[in-house]
Design brief:
The chain is α+β, with helices and mostly antiparallel strands. Helix content is 34%, strand content 26%. Helix 2 packs across helix 3.
Length: 148
Amino acid sequence: MSNFNYYSLPGFGEQCRKEYGFSDSCIIGDRMIVTEQTGMNPLTLKTSLNFDEEAAQAFQNVNDLIVQTLKDAQPFVSIGQDKGWDRVVKIRAFIVCLSSIREQAREQMVHSIKKWCPNHQPLFTMVGVESLPFPEHHIEIEVDVWLI
């Protein structure tokens, strides 16, 4: 396990790494695993009360994390100047109380996937959960990224 390279975003990502002992992403061979990114702004630590805004921030956080991880991984990984989402092959969204916001959540996910992945159609799973570790969070997104 010690030969894997782990990465975190500045702000809350680094805070979690220090306080809780977990990272935001890991590169293993030709694959990057991105853990669940919430809709919280990682620098201000604020989360919108509006689900659509929170989801949009979560997608932005995923992109920022992929781009930052690729930057931090240089020269070990060199795949060009793609946007973060260009190489996402699988998305998993965990949404609190999904049954009560199913239509809104589905519409927001479709909108965001089409926005961030205009040239490909990644695999997608949306799962309803009772709660997330931090009560102000209502969505977490994790992705698998192909680096070749």
